[in-house]
Design a protein that fits this description.
The protein folds into two domains: 1-77 and 172-254, Rossmann fold, CATH 3.40.50; 86-167, 3-Layer(aba) Sandwich (Rossmann fold), CATH 3.40.50.300. By secondary structure, it is α/β, with parallel strands linked by helices. The protein has nine helices and ten strands. Helix 2 (93-99) runs parallel beside helix 5 (152-164). The radius of gyration is 19 Å and the shape is globular. The protein has helices at 40-48, 93-99, 109-114, 117-136, 152-164, 182-197, 209-215, 233-237, 240-253; strands at residues 2-11, 14-24, 29-33, 55-60, 63-64, 78-80, 170-174, 201-205, 218-223, 226-231. The mean pLDDT is 88.
């Protein structure tokens, strides 16, 4: 589904990513782990188009993504959430989720301005689709609430609903449970497993190792911008390079 080949990214001469290469198999949940500053979010931003890699190539089912503008990638089936919530605080919950349906909206500005019957019909269908997604996340009763008054956990769920409403082929999750309590984390974990069971391809960036080990088919480990290991959860848990660079450090901190 996703092929990362030799990706490099520098900021002012400082390497954030160096020759990162791996693949995400279709229908799998692939986790990207590593210490803070390892380059995980930088790589997610390169895949989604927010950043342009300095070297390397990114392919989605054989189609080269690097070089395409960020706003084109949702049309190709790439959805994402953000490490720091990227919602529109003054819009309602429903309006935020409707933003995720932009690729399916009216392509003609003129027809939108004229409010033709076909355009109004399309808008009704998209609104119904967004409401169905809110229902799946248990947010229907809050559909008209401004996002700004929601709890942090609910805002995380709104962002996930917005990423999913367009039915992406590849879902990029950047620390989806950061800042959540145990109950909220378990709820997001259940949702990730449901999506996995439905066959969605997921690239997950996360520090919660219990969640990572329970939902992942494959794990890639970054350290100082380089991929130092990859394998199944069992292989990663026992890899001495990973223990030294990340897992051991986390245990010592705990």
């Amino acid at each position: 589904m996703l092929r990362i080949e030799g990706i490099g990214k520098h900021f002012g001469g400082v390497p954030a990513l160096s020759d990162v290469t791996f693949r995400c198999r279709e229908g799998w949940t692939t986790a990207l782990i590593g210490p803070n500053g390892a380059g995980k979010s930088t790589l997610i931003n390169c895949i989604s188009g927010i950043l342009a890699p300095d070297t390397g190539q990114i392919h989605l089912q054989g189609l080269r993504l690097d070089g395409l503008p960020a706003h084109r990638r949702p049309f190709l089936g790439v959805g994402r959430t953000f490490q720091n919530l990227a919602l529109f605080p003054r819009l309602t919950v429903l309006e935020n989720v409707l933003c995720g349906l932009t690729p399916q909206g009216e392509p003609s500005m003129l027809r939108s301005l004229l409010r033709l019957p076909a355009t109004r019909h399309r808008e009704r269908l998209l609104r119904l689709k967004a409401l169905e997604m809110l229902d799946a996340f248990g947010l229907t009763d809050k559909s008209q609430w401004p996002v700004s008054i929601l709890s942090y956990g609910d805002r995380k769920r709104v962002e996930l609903a917005r990423a999913l409403v367009s039915e992406p082929r590849l879902l990029l999750l950047d620390e989806p449970v950061a800042g959540l309590n145990a109950e909220e984390t378990a709820r997001i974990g259940t949702e990730i497993r449901r999506l996995h069971g439905a066959g969605l391809t997921i690239l997950l960036v996360e520090h919660d190792m219990d969640l990572v080990m329970s939902v992942s088919d494959h794990i890639v480990v970054l350290d100082s911008g380089r991929a130092i290991a990859s394998g199944t959860p069992g292989q990663i848990r026992s890899d001495p390079r990973v223990i030294e660079a990340y897992l051991g450090r986390m245990s010592a901190t705990a």
